[in-house]
Specification:
The complex is a heterodimer of chains A (120) and B (106). In chain A, 0% of the residues lie in helices and 50% in strands. In chain A, a hairpin with a 6-residue loop joins strand 5 and strand 6 (58-60). Chain A has 120 residues and is mainly β. In chain A, strands 2, 4, 5, 6, 9, 10 and 11 form a 7-stranded mixed beta sheet that branches. Chain B has 106 residues and is an all-beta fold. Classes of the chains: A mainly beta (120), B mainly beta (106). The interface between A and B is medium-sized, with 25 and 26 residues.
Chain lengths: 120, 106
């Protein structure tokens, strides 16, 4: 069974940085595109970024472009999200997730999320 | 960006009811539309992908349909465990935007 476990969430001051990690197991990591999705408190889901199978292609939502970087290490079965210049609008739960093969880019497995708080 | 508008924002229904949730896209997304269920404190779960395909392991009371840029999630025979937040997502255009969510109370 696919498992995704995020870590790295914390309380950070505005303008600060965080690096989120996600370790996966139960599937062949290098065979899947991966994505980060976030959810502000009491709000809906927001797609943040995704990355292709070998890490060569990344796409971001406009609000994080130039500040966030998605990356992966297939040898370590790990996905990362480097977040710089954090603002209060970046606060929420960050989910690591797998883009399904054959699901028209639907997300078929999710981690439980890691919380990010941004406050002075 | 493609705007996804869900309705209603919330609903209350009884066990056994037929429930429909609608998602409208601001432009064509063809069938690149997916539905997720999220229970409090949990990660979302894929229910329907590509508008009408039931994800493996999901009960057959869940179904999805499409008409142009309007998509519908139907729960036929609501069960107590179906309460939660339901989200739609389009994945044809970047960013892969979600609707604002529909809360279903039993």
């Amino acid at each position: 069974e696919a498992q995704l476990v995020e870590s790295g969430g914390a309380l950070v001051q505005p303008g600060g940085s965080l690096r989120l990690s996600c370790v996966v197991s139960g599937f062949t990591f290098k065979s899947y595109w991966m994505t980060w999705v976030r959810q502000a408190p009491g709000k809906g889901l927001e797609w943040v970024a995704h990355i292709d199978r070998d890490g060569g292609r990344q796409t971001y939502v406009g609000s994080v472009k130039g500040r966030f970087t998605i990356s992966r290490d297939n040898a370590k079965n790990s996905l990362y999200l480097q977040m710089n210049g954090l603002t209060v609008d970046d606060a929420g739960i960050y989910f690591c997730a797998r883009v399904g093969n054959g699901t028209y880019w639907g997300i078929d497995h999710w981690g439980r999320g890691t919380p990010v708080s941004v406050s002075s | 960006d493609v705007q996804m508008t869900q309705s209603p924002s919330s609903l209350s229904a009884s066990v056994g009811d037929r429930v429909t949730v609608t998602c409208r896209a601001s432009q064509s997304v063809y069938n690149y539309l997916h539905w997720y269920q999220q229970k409090p404190g949990e990660a979302p779960k894929l229910l329907i992908y590509a508008a009408s395909n039931l994800q493996s392991g999901v009960p057959s009371r869940f179904s999805g349909s499409a008409s142009g840029t309007t998509f519908t999630l139907t729960i036929a025979g609501l069960q107590p465990e179906d309460g939660g937040l339901y989200h739609c997502q389009q994945t044809l255009h970047f960013p892969h935007s979600f609707g604002q969510g529909t809360k279903v109370e039993i």
